[in-house]
């Protein structure tokens, strides 16, 4: 029996899918650079579509932000799958962290408690969390990740590096971020035997922030 092939979208469907992705990428850029108070008109302008096109897809700003959350979690899940496909457990984990930092996972944290959590958001988060847990568990089994580091530790680390940070004159933000991330990644390795302060962060606590 041959494997089922998902039909490719064509014509109007393909155009709608491209417009939708353009809106999501524009929303990520606008809200990252201008904050969440930015008008949706700025998103439409950056995406190169009219307001009518935006409102046909997203009736409210909240709907757009909810879709942006789902897209972010889908990208986290994809990064975790790529990491799991890597033969080397450490390199797989490191590539996952770098990929999540690169697309800005963590910028949506201020929305916790201010945005209704949809079933789609919850499902996307569960998928991403499960894959991240597998990636961290594999690194622990290979004894390349320090034993007292949890998935939530790594998620919060990614969130910190995924936000905009100032850079000294003559240095790019990306250059500074890459340097600091390399230092942080080395600190995650199993050869670091000193105890971490405090208890690992509780994932349920952070999930509850979104449910408030």
Describe this entry's structure for a reader.
This protein is mainly α. The chain has two domains: 8-59, Arc Repressor Mutant, subunit A; 68-211, Tetracycline Repressor, domain 2 (Orthogonal Bundle). It contains nine helices and no strands. The longest helix is centred in the middle third of the chain and has 25 residues, at 61-85. It is elongated, with a radius of gyration of 19 Å. The relative contact order is 0.10. The model is unreliable at 1-6 (pLDDT under 50).
Give a quick summary of the entry.
The protein has 212 residues and is mainly α. It is 65% helix and 0% strand.
Order of helices and strands: HHHHHHHHH
Termini Cα gap = 48 Å
Number of domains: 2
Shape: elongated
Question: CATH H-level name of the largest domain... which superfamily?
Answer: Tetracycline Repressor, domain 2
Topology overview:
Blueprint: H1 11-34, H2 40-47, H3 51-57, H4 61-85, H5 89-102, H6 119-141, H7 151-161, H8 173-188, H9 203-211
Helix pairs in contact: 1-2, 1-4, 4-5, 4-6, 5-6, 5-7
Identify the notable features of this structure and list them briefly.
212 residues, mainly alpha, Arc Repressor Mutant, subunit A, Tetracycline Repressor, domain 2, 0% strand, elongated, disordered N terminus
